[in-house]
Amino acid sequence: MTIVTRRRLIGGVAATGVLLSAPAVLGQSRPKVVVIGGGAGGATAARYIAKDSKGAIDVTLVEPTRRYYTCFFSNLYMGGFRDFESTGHSYGKLASDYGVNVVHDWAIGVDRDQKSVSLAGGAELSYDRLVLSPGIDFVDGSVAGWSLESQTKMPHAYKGGTQAQLLKAQLDGMPEGGTVVVVAPPNPYRCPPGPYERISMMAHLMKQQNPTAKILVFDPKEKFSKMALFQEAWANHYDGMIEWVGGDFGAVEEVRPDAMEVVVDGEIIKADVCNVIPAMKAGVIAEKAAVTNAKGWCDIVPATLQSRADPNIHVLGDATNNGDMPKSGYSANSQAKACAMAVRAELTGSKAFPPKFSNTCWSLVATDDGVKVGASYEATEEKIAKVDGFISQTGENADLRKQTYEESLGWYAGITSDMFG
Ligand SMILES: Cc1cc2nc3c(=O)[nH]c(=O)nc-3n(C[C@H](O)[C@H](O)[C@H](O)COP(=O)(O)OP(=O)(O)OC[C@H]3O[C@@H](n4cnc5c(N)ncnc54)[C@H](O)[C@@H]3O)c2cc1C
Hints:
- This protein is an alpha/beta fold.
- It is built from twelve helices and 25 strands.
- The chain has two domains: 2-137 and 281-352, FAD/NAD(P)-binding domain (3-Layer(bba) Sandwich); 140-278, FAD/NAD(P)-binding domain (3-Layer(bba) Sandwich).
- Residues 36-42, 62-65, 68, 71-72, 74-75, 106-107, 133-135, 158, 190-191, 194, 198, 283, 285, 317-319, 327-330, 332, 361-362 line the site of flavin-adenine dinucleotide (FAD).
- Flavin-adenine dinucleotide (FAD) binds at residues 36-42, 62-65, 68, 71-72, 74-75, 106-107, 133-135, 158, 190-191, 194, 198, 283, 285, 317-319, 327-330, 332, 361-362.
């Protein structure tokens, strides 16, 4: 009976523009949690809060897309190791198996005094606790000449969905011996090894279908995650194909999307494909909720993921300034479980234990050649602090590298089922 009523809510709020908060409909007074963003952080938090409270908390998840395409493994799609559809996941089980009200709409405002969220479709959702996991947005003007309007010519492919398909189509259609330019982002950004795994996968693809192509990487950083491992792989598997220019020399002055040009140190470089990954900040809804700091990220209380600006709001994943944890799907999923425990404790009086956090970032550098970096973390007063870590070594044998890659396949299956049920 209850589930039927909730199911009717799916998509209904946006479509009708009517206030349909679940307790009002059900005539109950369960505490209400609204989760904004159905990605690695938000989907996990919604599922765990609903599941572990056994229906005692009314959970609404607001997410515009009906199918979530993971950025994780999008690079494997780029390299031809996976098809695109294998990275897509739907929200059906969150609704049917866990009773989460899934509302497909954009959150466009947060009224912290009224404790309500307004949706693009016109509805207002009231909450006792709000969980924000909106991922990232790009910093306007961080790459001169590039704006969101340019993303159809120079894709970022740094949010899930069609951008990855566009970049892959451009790579597939590149003229023989053409040039790919990658403009890498400054710190901090989503998935520290992400651009470099992508470069490896682009090179893998080119080696198969366009072996005289070149990949030029302009990077404002002096060094990057798993650098020695990537550089070893580039020399071993793609010798002469990839040129990485970092630090001051890697700073791009301007990109010209219409002309497909990139200007570096006064020199104009013609690109056949140009992947621009701009500087990042927390998803704009966090700014609208006024929970971002001067650098555009959300400061949090480490043990509970509560916003330092508002204890009724928890922030997860890439949007956080959390201390030592990298912005990764693994981190967001790990933080979501700590957040779910804290939210349940606040709203139902259940017991909360000191949270433990962990992360591993795997990268595929060539066929059956996987590398990884990871760590465990704990909450201190100031930050989520690294306790101990590990990293693959250069020169590892092929069996170990294959095993590392296979671990990543297990992780992908595990995290996506932990997010979506
Ligand atoms: C190329 C690439 C490779 C990667 N590889 C890995 C990897 O191998 N391992 C790993 O752990 N991580 C990886 N990542 C990083 C990972 O994708 C992110 O760190 C993770 O998705 C962050 O989770 P999140 O919940 O913060 O944001 P997301 O997963 O991006 O979810 C945010 C959601 O919020 C929604 N949203 C935004 N604004 C609103 C709004 N106003 N209203 C409603 N909904 C909204 C969005 O539609 C989105 O679905 C990779 C990233 C990239 C780009």
